[in-house]
């Protein structure tokens, strides 16, 4: 999965209508989120740092829920935006998740095992697990 990293409000206008997962590296306003959803109708998730998630209004959270868009908290560690505007999740992570699902592990057990190996954040891991099960 490729996650588009947006570093500032100015970059919102540059996002593609095909974006599905976006990481916001700035504190978004309600308008910023509404604009992103309007520009990317296929959006499935917004990933933001924990301190920013606490400032998202209940109205915006309800709007995202109604649109079927997950609001996940977490950070993108070690990503260099000047090299690539996307942060990509390793195929190795998907392979491990698929193996753990095949082994019959619960979502919580999978998250616990992978979280020890990869610093991704539990919300993002749960999102990936859910998408792998569909």
Produce a short descriptive summary:
By secondary structure, the protein is an alpha/beta fold. It has helices spanning 30-39, 50-53, 58-67, 91-102, 107-117, 122-133; strands spanning 2-6, 21-24, 45-48, 70-73, 86-88. It folds into two domains: 2-87, no CATH class; 90-133.
How would you characterize this protein structure?
This protein has six helices and five strands. The chain is an alpha/beta fold. The protein folds into two domains: 86 residues, no CATH class; 44 residues. A five-stranded mixed β-sheet has the order 4-3-2-1-5, with helices on both faces. Strand 2, helix 1 and strand 3 form a beta-alpha-beta unit. It is globular and about 45 Å long. The mean pLDDT is 88.
Give the SSE map.
Elements: E1 2-6, E2 21-24, H1 30-39, E3 45-48, H2 50-53, H3 58-67, E4 70-73, E5 86-88, H4 91-102, H5 107-117, H6 122-133
Helix pairs in contact: 4-6, 5-6
């Amino acid at each position: 999965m490729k996650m588009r990293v947006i570093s500032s409000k100015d970059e919102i206008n540059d996002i593609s209508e095909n974006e599905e997962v976006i990481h916001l590296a700035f504190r978004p306003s309600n308008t910023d989120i509404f604009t992103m959803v309007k520009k990317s109708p296929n959006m499935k998730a917004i990933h933001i740092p924990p301190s920013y998630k606490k400032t998202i209004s209940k109205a915006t959270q309800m709007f995202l829920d109604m649109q079927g868009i997950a609001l996940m908290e977490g950070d993108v560690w070690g990503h260099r935006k000047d090299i690539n505007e996307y942060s990509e999740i390793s195929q190795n992570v998907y392979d491990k998740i698929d193996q753990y699902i095949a082994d019959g592990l619960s979502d919580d057990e999978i998250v616990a095992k992978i979280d020890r190996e990869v610093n991704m954040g539990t919300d993002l891991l749960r999102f990936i697990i859910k998408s792998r099960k569909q």
